[in-house]
Design a protein that fits this description.
The protein is α+β, with helices and mostly antiparallel strands and about 140 residues long. It has a single domain, classed as Photosynthetic Reaction Center, subunit H, domain 2 (Photosynthetic Reaction Center, Chain H, domain 2), CATH 3.90.50. About 15% of the residues lie in helices and about 30% in strands. The protein has 3 helices and 7 strands. Strands 1, 2, 3, 4, 5, 6 and 7 form a 7-stranded mixed β-sheet that branches. Strand 3 and strand 4 form a beta hairpin. The longest helix has 10 residues. The N and C termini lie far apart (about 30 Å). About 25% of the residues are buried. It comes from Kribbella turkmenica. InterPro entries: Bac_photo_RC_H_C, PRC-brl_dom, PRC_barrel-like_sf. This is PRC-barrel domain containing protein.
Length: about 140
Amino acid sequence: MNEFTHTLVRLDDAGLTLADPADDLRGRTVVDLNDEEVGTVDGVLIDEDERRVRFLEVGSGGFLGLGETKRLIPVDAITRVDDDNVHISTDRDRVAGGPVYDPDVVPERHYLEDVYGYYDTPPFWGPGYFYPGWPR
């Protein structure tokens, strides 16, 4: 098993900015493979050392942010990005059943492994991992 030495932080907390504001996925609607709304990208988690987006923080349910449930979706599940939407490779019921994310807790390796396993994608720290290029 590879040693896990990565620190993931919310982009908002990292003090970094995007080179091109058009690449910012925050605020866009997440749409499933059936073109049904899943939720909204509330934030992105980046690998602080490699400065790559690793997860979307997606909020769904609730009203005006109250009672909203947050989940992480690996960028590997993104199939397409347009001006308003982020399209993912699974359906919204699958996302709704995924591991819940608490933005006040730094995610640990075992939680991240669960998320990657749930979406059937390889973890970014594994051998042979290839960054999908979403977002650019």
